[in-house]
Amino acid sequence: MAKKSAETTYFTKHLFGAGIQCATKLYYKSRDFAESKTAIPFIRHAVFNKRLLKALARSVYPQGIFVKESSIQDAAEKTQKLLEQEDSVLFDAIFEHDQMMARLPIVAKKGDTLTVFHIQTKAFDSRRDRLITSSGNIYSKWRKYLLDFAYQLYMVQNNWPDFKIVPILVMPEKSGEAHTGNLPFKLKPLDKRKQPILVPAENQELLAKIEVSDLISVVWDETDFATEHLPRSSFQESLYYLRDLYLNKKKEAPVVGTKCKDCEFRIESERIQEGEESGFNNCWAPEMAQKTPSEQHVFDLIGPGVNQWVEEGVYSKQEIEQADIFDITTIVNSRGGISHKMRQALQIYKAQGQPVPTEIMRPELIDELDRWQYPLHFLDFEAGNYTVPIRAGRSPYQLIVFQYSCHTLHQNGEWEHHQWIDSNNGQYPNYELVRQLMQIPNITKGTIVQYSNFERTALKTIRRELMNEETEVEGSEQLLEWTTRIIRRNDSSHHHPPYVADLSRLVKNYYYNREMNNSLSIKGVLQSVMSHSNYLKELYSKPYSSDNFSNIKWWQDDGEGGARNPYTILTETGDSPIRRGTEAMVVYGKLRATEFRDEQVQAYQHALLKYCELDTLAMVMIYQHWKNKIAEEQ
Predict the structure, then answer these.
(1) Residues 472 and 587 in one domain
(2) Is residue 284 part of a domain?
(3) Is there a single domain that holds both residue 128 and residue 240?
(4) DSSP line for 228-284
(5) Which residue has the higher pLDDT, 440 or 575?
């Protein structure tokens, strides 16, 4: 094996996948263009879940050896040396070929056979899922994973051409159940000591292990597959074409379209203003009469129908003819909900510099709020789903609700805050959640308010668990009675209280203000309402204190006449800042899988409590603005 310099650049599986999506991306990656931070929490969640799967899959190989060398060249040489032994099992084996490399989580050698494992986090149900259609084609939802595996196996085969290679695709098995409690902690997926952790072998039923030799042959050898799914006429030709684009830092002419909507090179406008270059803008600038195409792109229109504009060659909101959209008068005077086409029209008028209504509150919104009975319990859960469940008898991605926040608002305007977070004390979080919810004063009276229907859905999931374990859970009869009573409440679109009301539905159907931008998430709506409402400005310019916050001012000027997003302010309050539910999911997963020092656990828990409290406070703020506006107009 020829020695390479420490500066050697390698083509990887990740780059191969990016090139299959869009060959132009390889130029931006080779030049280290800035990438959007939006996807980072989701990537971290996927990485954590993959580490859980790796630890579980490795747990049946006590003789496994980690390839620990830090450089790719040294690790590849160590892999080669270890595989020269008669029988061996390697973890994180590195294979290098023609300035391309692959890292495999598990490679088991027995005689002249290499069994190679590729681990993915997409769940598979062996009772009903199939990788191929009845006509022999690979289902589209599995194609990406088989392409990834085909890339890795190409590296293995070129290092060991005379060996029989058995490819095993490993995924979470929906029909499997854990046989050991607290399994993530026992597997220690974040342990840096690099030792295989042994757990009872029956837990392997959590893993679908599928031999995919025939499907890899389809990817490698079939011309029809390459013609339809690869940039060149064969797998090998496509591989070297993409590799050369990256290594030579060559830019393939972009072919823009609907596929670009979630491009990682569409970075935040603030970063562009600070001088970072946007690959997305570079691709779209020739197609649009704008220096920064990302700022007015139709991709930001809320709701369906965006693809139609793009396919018709209309890329900017400024290009859309007003004759093709609702007029302002119709939107304002229309009865019933604000449709997605109306909302898109408002976005388009705003982008074109046309006057838009200061605020729209449909009568249906006012009617529903009038039906809400006090006290109002603004309730938010934080939950996670992990590839390896924490409770025996559960399947991969079983929902775990690990905390709640509840702001209770009384008719006289006074409020109180209640909260709970799992302390990992041996109680099953889902059941303990219900016990703690039952302790909230007057929770069965008045109206429970959620943002989206998640809280009701989560309680339905927990109720099903309780029904299956009724004889095993202390107090299950009371827990079942309480959850049943709550989930059977109507939404406030009905005329019969008590309610579990959905604030997000009210926003989507009946509310608009001109500060709204491209999102109906609670974070986006909150900032728009804070910027719009003088009442909230007066109220939250004053210090706010609770169990989690001390004298924090939630209304702060953004320097442009509006309000800063309170979720941005949250990151300045110390601890380990959390701004998204996916970040909370990763933090809790780490707490359940790692033995931290007490002070680190407290810091993580405090960050989780702060984030969850702000979610319910955000609902309170939106509601307070609405009620104040209604009172002013009466």
Answers:
(1) no
(2) no
(3) yes
(4) HHSSSSSHHHHHHHHHHHHHTTPPPPP--SGGGTT-TT---HHHHHTTPPPHHHHHH
(5) 440
Q: Are 411 and 496 part of one and the same domain?
A: yes
Residue with tokens 């603005």: 625
- Pairing mode, strands 415-421 and 359-361: unpaired
**Domain C-terminal end among 483, 502, 521:** 502
DSSP 559: S
Q: Phi-psi bin for 95: left (phi > 0), alpha (psi -120 to 50), beta?
A: beta
Task: Compute the mean pLDDT over every residue in the chain, rounded to the nearest whole number.
Answer: 95
User: What total of structural domains would you count in the chain?
Assistant: 4
Cβ atoms within 10 Å, residue 145: 22
Report the SS3 class of residue 158. Answer: helix
Q: What is the CA radius of gyration of the chain?
A: 27
Average of pLDDT values for 302-306? 93
Same domain, residue pair 494 and 384 = yes
Residue 379 lies in a domain: yes
Residues 6+ apart with CB under 8 A from 157: 165
- 78 shares its domain with 196: yes
Structural domain contains residue 255:
no
Please choose, from the candidates 548, 500, 493, the residue with its C-alpha nearest in 3D space to the C-alpha of residue 376: 500
Whether residues 325 and 346 share a domain: the answer is yes
* Domain boundary, last residue among 314, 329, 357: 357
Taking residues 281-309, what's their average pLDDT?
92
Give dist(CA 312, CA 315) in Å, integer.
9
Chain segment 428-469, per-residue pLDDT in tens: 999 999 999 999 999 999 999 999 999 999 999 999 999 999
Overall size of the chain counted in residues? 634
- The dihedral sign for the CA sequence 625, 627, 630, 631: negative
Q: Rounded CA gap, 168 and 119, in Å?
A: 9
Q: pTM score, two decimals?
A: 0.94
Task: Indicate the DSSP class of residue 499.
Answer: B
CA terminus-to-terminus distance, the chain? 82
DSSP secondary structure string, 561-606? SSB--HHHHHTTSSSS---SHHHHHHHHHHHHHS---HHHHHHHHH
Please give the pLDDT value at position 571. Answer: 77
Mind listing the pLDDT tens digit for each residue in 122-138? Answer: 999 999 999 999 998 99
Residue 319, in any domain of the structure: yes
The boundaries of the domain holding residue 331 are 293-357
* pLDDT category of residue 1 using cuts at 50, 70 and 90: very low
Q: SS3 for 3-44, per residue?
A: CCCCCCCCECHHHHHHHHHCCCHHHHHHCCCCCCCCCHHHHH
Query: What mean pLDDT do residues 496-506 have?
Result: 97
